[in-house]
Amino acid sequence: MNDGSKKSRRRRSSSLLYQEPLESMEHLSDQSAIPNLNANWVNAKGAWVIHIVLIVALKIFYSIIPGIQRDTSWFLTNITYMFGSYLMFHWVRGIPFEFNAGAYDNLNMWEQMDNGEQFTPTKKYLLSVPICLFLVSTHYTHYDLTYFTLNVMALLGVIIPKLPWSHRLRVRFLSGSPDDRYLDER
Q1: Whole-number Å distance between alpha carbons of 147 and 127
Q2: CA 167: distance to chain centroid?
Q3: Distances (CA, A) of 39 to 8, 104, 111, 127, 160
Q4: Could you give the CA distance from residue 30 to residue 24 in angstroms, rounded to a whole number?
Q5: What CA–CA distance (Å, rounded) separates 43 from 166?
Q6: What is the percentage of the chain residues whose pLDDT exceeds 70?
Q7: Which residues contact 76 (CB under 8 A, 6 or more apart)?
Q8: Tens digit of pLDDT for each residue in 34-46?
Q9: Is residue 105 within 8 Å of 94, Cβ to Cβ?
Q10: DSSP states of 73-102 as a string?
Q11: Residues 21-47, mean pLDDT to the nearest whole number
Q12: Confidence band (pLDDT; 50, 70, 90) for 128?
């Protein structure tokens, strides 16, 4: 085999976990050149309130559907918020803007917020909202074992990616293959 075909092949790993490598100096300079509009909005006025507004809107939506009882509406509110939160903060990588030369392409929004610092006030708040919603949902479902089990699974699915030890950690069957440019730099 020649060297050209070796570089085009993707290295495979049997590991389910993949640790995203740190950025190169180029990416760090690209990140510091322009503010990250994708993640800076979470520190703006009203950004914290929108989560409460969304939860109330979801609760009202599920409550007005005929035939849905109060415990089921709280359960659906919890599951919908947790799914949306995971999708927004942990699933989608990169930013929708093309002005930073791909500096944030392999980082999800949680990793982009506050320049990757842990336990900032915003991150503490966003960590506490799913926990409080879980507690309220569990109370109003009268601690039913089925609802409780599903609510705990949803909570763990949202809380675990927010913890510091899972920063830049990817679960391969959930997030796909790592970007080739980072494999070539190693």
Answers
A1: 21
A2: 11
A3: 33, 10, 9, 16, 20
A4: 10
A5: 22
A6: 71
A7: 58, 62, 68
A8: 677 777 888 888 8
A9: yes
A10: HHHHHHHHHHHHHHIIIII-BS-S--SSTT
A11: 73
A12: very high
Residue 171: which H helix or E strand, with range?
strand 169-171
Whole-number percent of the chain with pLDDT over 90: 42
**Packing angle of the helix pair 70-86, 145-159 (nearest 10 deg):** 20
- Give the Cα separation of 85 and 83 in Å (integer): 5
Q: Are 53 and 72 in contact (CB under 8 A)?
A: no
120 to 50, 91, 113, 116, 157: CA distances (angstroms) = 18, 21, 9, 10, 21
User: Do residues 10 and 177 lie in contact, with contact meaning Cβ atoms separated by under 8 Å?
Assistant: yes
The angle at the Cα of 30, spanning 27 to 31, to the nearest 5 degrees, equals 85
Partners of 169 in the beta sheet? Answer: 19
Take residue 44 and report the two structure tokens written for it.
């703006």
Cα separations in angstroms, 108 against 62, 90, 114, 149, 176: 29, 6, 12, 27, 13
